Amino acid sequence: MNLILLGPPGAGKGTQAVYISKTYQIPSISTGDMLRAAVAANTPLGQEAKSLMEQGYLVPDDLILRMLAERLQEEDCKNGYILDGVPRTLVQAEEMDKQNILVDKVLNFEIPLDEVVARLSGRRVCPSCKATYHVLFQAPKAEGICDHCGATLMTRKDDEPESIQKRMEVYTEQTEPLITYYQGQQKLFGINALGTTKEVEERIRDVLGESV
Ligand code: AP5
């Protein structure tokens, strides 16, 4: 099963990608995580992406498409994959179709924008194992420390208020049109992303069924 997770920044896509990956045994491919790894390693790709990401702008389409095509060649994608954060523009979606990158279902995380701002403002991430927390909604057992690996949690640079605002604008202008695009292909499934992570998991399971 090949899935796309669509929705505004902070809707809970990354959180649910972990659940889907574990439950259905398919890898989660997050272009955001791949770019952050490139920034941390200071590769040429990372150098190009860094300031765009920090300010809340999208990274150029050709760069994303190259990165995605390479990742999908890897052995673990043979039985399916979850695309978290890609496509983000109509150009990316159309090019993926041209390249025959298979998509069975698109899960569209539906959530009011004021709710995502609250989620992003309280997000903390583990720089080591990449686990995601929220200071109120998904707090770690010890404040500021990752439950899984003990690293000190940090705030993403693009979770500063100005970046959040820009990311919302970019989402509305460039990513939201994908809803109509995938509706047209009859692949879109709305997921109510409000409520607890468990409630959202159950809604996803209702759409995906027992096995994918
Ligand atoms: P990316 O990393 O993809 O960021 P995003 O889409 O903005 O998504 P987020 O990671 O912010 O949110 P999420 O929906 O995964 O929410 P999460 O689960 O963390 O992209 C970053 C940047 O990279 C982009 O801005 C762009 O520059 C670049 N980029 C990436 N892909 C690109 C592409 N294809 N094209 C061009 N550029 C690209 O949850 C958020 C918070 O809420 C967490 O604190 C979590 O604990 C909490 N939470 C989750 N679920 C719940 C719940 N049910 N109840 C309460 N709290 C919850």
Describe this structure in words.
This protein is of the alpha/beta class. Helices cover 47% and strands 14% of the residues. The protein has nine helices and seven strands, in the order E-H-E-H-H-H-E-H-E-H-E-E-H-H-E-H. The strands form two sheets. Strands 2-3-1-4-7 form a five-stranded parallel β-sheet, sandwiched between helices. Strand 5 and strand 6 form a beta hairpin. The model has no long low-confidence stretch (mean pLDDT 96). BIS(adenosine)-5'-pentaphosphate binds next to helix 1, helix 2, helix 3, strand 6 and helix 9.
Main attributes of the structure:
212 residues; alpha/beta; two-stranded antiparallel sheet; 9 helices; 47% helix; binds BIS(adenosine)-5'-pentaphosphate
CA radius of gyration: 16 Å
Low-confidence stretches: none
Distance separating the two termini: 5 Å
Mean pLDDT across all residues, rounded? 96
- Cofactors and ligands: BIS(adenosine)-5'-pentaphosphate
Shape: globular
Number of helices in the DSSP assignment? 9
Portion of residues in beta strands equals 5-15%
> Main beta sheet, described?
5 strands, parallel
- Oligomer status: single chain
In total, the number of strands is 7
Measured as a percent range, the helix fraction is 40-55%
| Major sheet strand order | 2-3-1-4-7
| Series of H and E elements | EHEHHHEHEHEEHHEH
Supply the helix-strand structural class: alpha/beta
